[in-house]
Please model this.
Amino acid sequence: MAKSAAPVLEASDFQRRLKRLFELIETGKIRFIEDQVPETVAALKRVKRLPDGTFDLSTVDGPVRALCMTVDFMEYRANPKFDHATMDLPPLSLPRLDALRTSDNAFLTDLIDASNLVRKYMMMVASVIPDASIDSARYAILAGHAVRLFKLYDTFLYLIVADRSEMAMILLRALAETAINFAFLLNNNDPNLIRTFHKASLAYEKKLWDELEQRRQTPPLPIEQRMQDGAKRAILRAGFKLEEISWSDRNWGGDVSSKARTTDLISLYEFAFRPMSHNVHGTWHDLEFHHLEHKDGQYHPCLHYTDAQPQLIEGATVVCLGLVRLYVQVVASGQSLEISLRLQDLEEWFRQMSSLHETFVTASKGNKSVQATDDEAPGVGNST
Model:
């Protein structure tokens, strides 16, 4: 099971939050009663301030890190344009965890029921009103990822419900990559990263422009001229010049694997991104398990779809919930408290359902670990 995206403060942002935290303490705006929170007070006393006014981050323990994550919430300023807005959160009406479930379909039915509630929360979080303090360029990229994640999850569920399991697995890879990129951007508040992210997508436009330029005829074909003009407009609209973009710009922030490691989502990469390459690219593995059947020493076309497995929903949902919880904390900290608690409760329900389902599968297999058998494609029977 993949972990949810853990908040990782970028060093400069960490220093900013530490400085503001100690300013609030020193001016009396934050006070601690030592005998009630002795560990927190002791951790604060261990923090060392360097001669230049910054802090030695190696001396900062968990309680202080937790306080740093809430500094912006303590001084939350609502966007004045939307001070009248409220969010009516749907109730957490979930299937009972202690209900008797005697088949995969029983688990799948309850998971889909709960996933419909997750869809509502993901929609609401993607539409949350940003704090006035967040940089508009960063917000645009983060909000775009929040919407993309919702749409991928929404369509992924649609395919599961329609018993289009192998098609859902194609989307699962896109969802996994989006989740990893989203987590990486949420955990790195660096203006240069925003610029790099923009340039990465423009690299494909510049590649197209260069290819058309090499093939350019005199006079140019109308369709080629339109394509070249469109690529140039996309680059200029983003605030760049043609000569500022190159094909090497397409690699932003490292490869997917390295970004997954830095955001604590490497298990998502290993169990959802990499294995689903088979489904995306149509390898022999995909053909053999999903589009052919073997009988009497011969392969024959197999036009029916693979049955959905509960594990597909369990892992994807836990990851999505962790990400949207972090998203609302980053872009709208003042609105995040109640929403975060609801999302955390939802995430915990799915984690417990995953555990219950694993217990059921293990028992049904004769107390053996779940492994891919000759008639089960690897990846399908494993939590993401």
